[in-house]
Amino acid sequence: MKLFDVYPLNDITIERALGSYVWDEKGEKYLDLYGGHAVISIGHTHPHYVKRIEDQLHKVGFYSNSVRIPLQVELAEKLGRISGKEDYQLFLCNSGAEANENALKLASFYNGRKKIIAFRKAFHGRTSLAVAATDNPKIIAPVNQTDHVLFLPFNDEAALEEAFRSNDISSVIIEGIQGVGGINVASDPFLRKIRSLCDTYDAVFIADSVQCGYGRTGKFYAHDHSGVNADIYTMAKGMGNGFPVAGISISPKFKPQHFMLGTTFGGNHLACAAALAVLEVMEADELMKNAATVGEYLVGELNKINGIREVRGRGLMIGIELPEEMSNVRKDLLFKYKIFTGEAKPNVIRLLPALNMTVTEADIFLQALKSAISE
Ligand SMILES: Cc1ncc(COP(=O)(O)O)c(C=O)c1O
Predict the structure, then answer these.
(1) Quick one: CA dihedral 336, 340, 341, 344, positive or negative?
(2) CATH number at 47-284
(3) Protein residue with least CA distance to atom 16, ligand 1
(4) Which terminal residue of the chain has fewer beta carbons within 10 Å of its beta carbon, N or C?
């Protein structure tokens, strides 16, 4: 059997990884500022993470949600405390798309409505509702097309107010910082406007924190910078540092009913052990603080480099927009300077490193970027 060829690949095989570094099959070392797409939050093969998963594997790796799983309770308590949402409820699943799918569904169960507000350039995943709320017609199959989703301009308060007048909005889904869309920060006043309109019309505010959440911006959820709470937070990527685990954090106003949501694999023992290890390291090593500090340093230094069109983002979620004629820079960073970064259209370099990235590693990148830009 051959692989179903859906990804353009870099001709690199990663065989080993540690902290913010990976090594290929030839022993070549790369600085990883991409984290496999914002997934590596506490660094590759972190010893505490490896040990916690290994220990759990020797006890029990999996059992379904038909029995008590105390690790889930432990995870919910820790996540509630670290994210500052102790009265919220946790539903565990396996991927970002699934988290958003469940959030949109729960919102509709809650208020009985069907209309979803999403935003231009949004990315929410590839399953049916999540992809319908994603602003990319190329990945929406005919069967996923629906008139339930209304796409509005990002950060446009007037358009939002106008859309709410119909009074049939079930939910608003928004990334705190658009990732795939090119690192566009949702403004604090815009998030506050979403909160107030959702309150007025009893609609549900869904904070897609799959990429921008989990401490990446220096606060647990990127939306926290606005000072208001969402009704549901969706999370995945950084949650398991590579182990597939995702979840939704649900405000107390939602009352659960048996079987309204469900999953076979979600919240299994190994996934919980991985997620707990991540939170334990985040807390012990104060990684949110580090993300804020190193992120601020990077943005400050990036703003001094000639040739960059714009620097956007918060903490360790940074977009560097370059002019079109510099379309070689990202490839040069990878193949000449051995640094992984992410990309977004039109010509944006996305930095999504581990949250324990150091200033020394930031300097290595800055030096390489300056050289790549001036070549
Ligand atoms: C903001 C956002 N939401 C949802 C998803 C979908 O997550 P997954 O690929 O785990 O389904 C992604 C993935 O890139 C994302 O960036």
Answers:
(1) positive
(2) 3.40.640.10
(3) 211
(4) N
